[in-house]
Amino acid sequence: MKRTSTLAVSVMSLMLVFNAAGQANTKWNLVNDPYYGFPNYTSLFPGLKSSMLGAVKDDDNISNIESRGSGPTGLRTEFFLNNWFGVGVDAIYSGSSVTYDRLDSVVDGVSYTNAYERKMSRVRIQARFNFHFPVKNKRLDMYGGIGIGSNAKYRKLFVNGVETEDNTGFWKGFPTIPISMRTCWGFRYYFSKFVGMNFEVGIGGPLISTGVSSRFGFKLPKIPGMDELSPEGDNLRKKVEDAKRKQEEIEKKEGELKPQENPEKQKLEEEKLQLEKEKLKLEQEKLELEKQKFEEEKKKLEEEKKTEEKKEEEKP
């Protein structure tokens, strides 16, 4: 009984750590990952039994063998139920073909050769469950996942360009298991609030895959240095830049000021520059006060936001 209680406390502590950590995604976010993967085992690696190229290569009556295929291509969609757990769907497609000429018969010394083409495509649709690791970088979303779903293969044979029923038993070397499973590790890195890139390694699908990530949601995380700007912050920054530019102009005028024959005129210009400098100094002090006020308001809003997020996470 004590051991069970300790395990329950450990699980609850782990969940609290995951919820408290900064994440690139938050509750109710929807992420789409179109991707392209490598390799396609069916069209490559002639030494493998699961390769169509390997299945025809050892036949002495076959010549002019060519193999083609596309790497696993797919779309992963994930919906975040909270900061550390998401559910979704992974649709994976791969296709391959092999073409060759085969000497089928010799009649009265005449060889009869036919052109063959075999095509096979595979479609897997899996339910995905991802567990997201706590990381400090709000641009980075790192996760481990598992998937389970369907597995279907579609096969065709063409002889001299005409689709033909295959009675040779060739496809017995490519059995279909109706269930597919996957385990994987991956990450997403966001360049902006809505767009990033994805990378994943796994077993039970593409060994390696990468692509573009796009996300949507009612409450997207802010990207440091990109999404924190507000209209007030922009206006304040513009005022600071204008003040800096005016100061450079005054310094330039002082450097260009030459002694004149009329001392009174020289004195008036110097007094004018001094007044401009004092006016600029007052403007800079005013901007500094505005900046402090802006920082205090920003800090207050962030604290209120954290309090609201904490209350929302504590809701059952």
Beta strand %: 35-45%
The largest sheet, given as strand count, sense and whether it forms a barrel, is: 8 strands, antiparallel, barrel
Low-confidence stretches: 1-22
Summing up helix and strand content along with how strands pair, one would put the structural category as alpha+beta
Q: What is the name of the CATH class of the largest domain?
A: Mainly Beta
Helical percentage: 25-40%
Assigned CATH architecture of the largest domain: Beta Barrel
The mean pLDDT is 79
Provide the domain count.
Answer: 2
Q: Which sequence of SSEs, written as H and E, runs from N to C? A: HEHEEEEEEEEHH
Identify the strand order in the major beta sheet: 1-2-3-4-5-7-8-9
Quaternary organization = single chain
Query: Tell me, what's the shape?
Result: elongated
| Number of alpha- plus pi-helical segments | 4
Would you give the CATH topology of the largest domain?
A: Porin
Distance between the termini: 26 Å
The number of distinct β-strands equals 9
Describe this structure in words.
This protein is an alpha+beta fold and 316 residues long. Helix content is 33%, strand content 40%. The chain is built from four helices and nine strands, in the order αβαββββββββαα. It has an eight-stranded antiparallel barrel with strand order 1-2-3-4-5-7-8-9. The N terminus is likely disordered.
Notable traits:
316 residues, Porin, alpha+beta, disordered N terminus, single chain
What can be said about this structure in brief?
The chain is an alpha+beta fold. It is built from 4 helices and 9 strands.
